[in-house]
């Protein structure tokens, strides 16, 4: 009787930087399955289904327009408040959802991870991909709204920065993934840290030019805003799609470099935490 050689060998991961990233290609179908679960299955027993991806940015934009545009009268650099707040809202939601969903990897999937082996990074990557699908739908809504205002005579237009928009969105996704897997690794031991995620995201939103332009920040505090690596991304997106925004290519490149560094740190922490997370989750 002939015996078939083993096709898969599971070995303990030891040492530094042993992230086994080559294995991810073998689990591409599983990633697609998790994307389907995160994006479609979660809305199966709801009334509006995926339409929530449209209603959420619309309702948030309406609230921001009334509260910050009409009542607080914050500057929007001459851009119609609806366009200004909608772009900031959908971009921030993309980053925040990536971070929040990936940070819950071990806790929400403990029952699966404790029964079968697969590369644990599959779940965070699927979460980021499902958030990208939701963002694509919301971006189409924004572009349709932008076209309406453009036809109505509003002074909004694309600029050459639109070519860098995919890079800016990749930086947002990278920060969301990096922050999420770092929080995920830390909450496997310190469970109370997950309660700080929502508060931290809310606080960070006000430190990022989401509801206000960088040009409205006092000159004495501009350097503080520029320390935020998300600032050039949001200002760059406004410059790309609306024609306004204070952004420098050097700041954007530095933000991308910092994002890559955080992703590498997150991969190391995540890999080390996954070895014994079942003992603490």
What does this protein look like?
The protein has one domain (33-279). The relative contact order is 0.14. The longest helix is centred in the middle third of the chain and has 30 residues, at 122-151. By secondary structure, the chain is mostly helical. The model has no long low-confidence stretch (mean pLDDT 84). The protein has eleven helices and no strands. It has helices spanning 28-39, 52-71, 81-103, 105-108, 110-113, 122-151, 165-187, 195-207, 222-227, 231-241, 249-273.
User: β content, as a range?
Assistant: under 5%
User: The biggest beta sheet, please?
Assistant: none
Helix content: 55-70%
Helical segment tally?
Answer: 11
Please tell me the overall pLDDT: 84
Indicate the structural class: mainly alpha
Features:
281 residues; globular; 0% strand; mainly alpha; 61% helix
Topology of this protein?
Elements: H1 28-39, H2 52-71, H3 81-103, H4 105-108, H5 110-113, H6 122-151, H7 165-187, H8 195-207, H9 222-227, H10 231-241, H11 249-273
Helix pairs in contact: 1-6, 2-3, 3-6, 3-7, 6-7, 7-10, 7-11
Give the structure's gist in a few sentences.
The chain is mainly alpha-helical and 281 residues long. It has helices at residues 28-39, 52-71, 81-103, 105-108, 110-113, 122-151, 165-187, 195-207, 222-227, 231-241, 249-273. It is built from eleven helices and no strands.
